[in-house]
Amino acid sequence: MIERRSATRIPVSFHVSFGSIALGKQEGMISDLAVNGCRLESLAPMAVNSYLQLWIKVSPTLPRILVDLAAVRWVRDGQAGIEFLSLRPEYKTELEQIMEELPE
What we know:
single chain; mainly beta; Thrombin, subunit H; 6 strands; globular
């Protein structure tokens, strides 16, 4: 597989709620994270090129980060590659700060 990512992903273990009109609300974990996307692990059925909204819980004490619009780019073995398409500036800033504090 050819690596096409434009940003480095950092290993994490964050709880995520996600959903769409077709999928309903689902739960999962994010196992790696970049400013422009993540790897989402879930038993929920996801289709390539479908769109989701995500609520990422990075800490019990911090508010969730909302990704208004994300696209499923690949699906394999209970995992999906997610590209963030719409992320409000305040959430993007918060995500960047969190990623700076995480070890690579």
